[in-house]
Amino acid sequence: MRLLSLLILFLMLFNCKLDKKSTMVQEKAAPQRGELSWESQIFLGNRLFSEKTCITCHDVNKTKIGPSVKEIMKIYKEENGDIVAFLRGKAKPIVDTTSAQVAIMQANIDGFLQNISDEELQTIATYMQHVDELNRD
Ligand code: HEC
Question: How far apart are CA 26 and CA 137, in angstroms?
């Protein structure tokens, strides 16, 4: 019996220690989490560009169902546009403003991009910029 209570006491102490440790780790980890590096953004953006099906309509160089990434980036640079704001539904389209085309893209913003964080949207924008730079002529 004594042994058992000792064991319980020991377990309780041990648990306490563990708890303390895990909160300490959390407290330490939270402020340390900085911005994603350029490379990580490209990596994640590339993944999201397929996962969120962007790639089915946006080729790098050629117009598919939607304008090519090169064309989009060209206009966004010229007009100093904000891709993240557009993908958030907070900025109007500036590449192709034909209503049928806008509606196709809008369906993606309302669908695939509903539950995505701003940080993730930024990785998509970074990836598009990277692809554009890689394919300079
Ligand atoms: C079903 C086809 C389709 C899919 C999937 C799709 N798009 Fe589009 N996208 C379009 C069409 C069509 C346009 C042209 C209309 C427009 O410019 O808004 C467009 C336009 C755009 C534009 C330019 C908007 C502007 O300012 O005119 C961006 C940026 C863009 N798409 C990014 C994305 C991203 C990122 C994804 C994936 C999350 C995606 N698209 C998925 C069809 C698609």
Answer: 47
Q: How far is the CA of 38 from the centre of ligand 1 (A)?
A: 23
Q: Which two tokens stand for residue 35?
A: 């911005």
Ligand 1 atom at minimal distance to the Cα of residue 113: 38
HSE-CB at 60 with a 13 A cutoff on CA atoms is: 11
Counting from 1 in the atom list of ligand 1, the atom nearest the Cα of 96 is 17
Query: Does the C-beta of 101 come closer than 6 Å to ligand 1?
Result: yes
Q: Which residues pair with 58 in a beta bridge?
A: 63
Per residue in 25-39, pLDDT (tens digit) is 555 545 556 789 999
